[in-house]
Amino acid sequence: MGRTVVVLGGGISGLAASYHLSRAPCPPKVMLGGSWLQTLEARGAVFSQELLQQQAQEAAATQLGLKEPPSHCLVHLHKNCIPQYTLGHWQKLEAATQFLASQRLPLTLAGASYEGVAVNDCIESGRQAAARVLGSEPDS
């Protein structure tokens, strides 16, 4: 079976991709974006299917050692789909958390917008939020 490279907006760690590629029978997906995409956009780059496919193939070759071209490729561009924290995010989050506590507002913050965009971060954020709402400590 040939390899498929799919380009989506967002970032990916080469190490994490290598791990999942080695464990999954399905073809790899390559996600590109974040500051790399924003830099190209600021320079006025045109995001053609060919450019994104070329970048994905280069990333797969460099980070995963996949030198053979894919048998087919699907390219999808999703802008602004993964949160990117701005400078001062953690200070703003701490201030919001302190405000909610001091005002005793019945609001709990959870999800990718606050303390991590990865799926495991979101799961942990939800577990901690549920524990706060229930007045208990989350299980480790």
Automatic annotation (TrEMBL):
GO annotations of cellular component type: mitochondrial inner membrane
Superkingdom, taxonomy of origin: Eukaryota
Residue ranges of domain Amine oxidase in the record: 31-134
Gene Ontology MF: a single term: oxygen-dependent protoporphyrinogen oxidase activity
Keywords: FAD, Flavoprotein
GO terms classed as biological process: heme biosynthetic process
Cross-referenced Pfam families: Amino_oxidase
Keyword Repressor: no
Protein name: Protoporphyrinogen oxidase
Gene this chain is encoded by: USP21
